[in-house]
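Predict the 3D structure for this chain.
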Amino acid sequence: MNANLNTGPTGKRLLRWLAAAMLTIGVTGSALAGIANTKHNLSSSGTGVNSTTSTDQICVFCHTPHAADVTSAGAPPLWNKGMPVTTGFTMYSTDSMQGTALGLSGSPSLACLSCHDGTQAMDSTVNAPGQGLGSGYIGATGNWTGANQTAGKMNSATVALLGKDLSNDHPITIPYCGGGLTAALGVSSTSGSCNDSDFNGVSTAQIGSSQAFWVDTGSAGRQKTDIPLYNRGGTPHVECGSCHDPHVELAAPLVSFMRVSAA
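Done. Predicted structure below.
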């Protein structure tokens, strides 16, 4: 490193920026290495059921570094797909389930359903790869390979195609442990008690500008291996991402993008 680098306020800011950038590159590289070996690698290097020859970029099917969707409630960071409309879905419901599904409006599970409900092509993006801010499809509709898709849309009753009838799938948008737990911003423990006492306890803490909830699976403190719960109105809720990590490698026992083994 240049020994003459400014060590004043400007130089210190530059050093902090460089450190943050290097950390981001490391994290991004780790995520990329994980997803490259999964069915979510839809690029030309993908070895899963479906892929397209239109691009070798892996992350672009879900994320973009610029011009991301910041208006849709529940959209993940740097989201690159249109979020589906919330009408027409049938949610899971049973007399034996404690707690009522909050509904898909503002739900982070909409990000998963933007492909898995089968209503839009897997390469329908906000910002297509290449120069400029081109919206639309990544490539020509005929560039898709693999079964169970038509022009990039899921088209069969496989496990991956959830459709809009979620009544036979694991419930989402439901309060964890039947409800009863809350936490205000900045606190380190939840208030109240689970309506169903058979569930594991919930940890909470402020992370960034939001109050996070999770179920510890190892050491104390928020870890990647924990089960994340989603803050909806100050209450921990179960969403798709509670059980599934879309970036995890398909290696036993963590198959089907499961966060923990179902064994």
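The chain has a mean pLDDT of 83.
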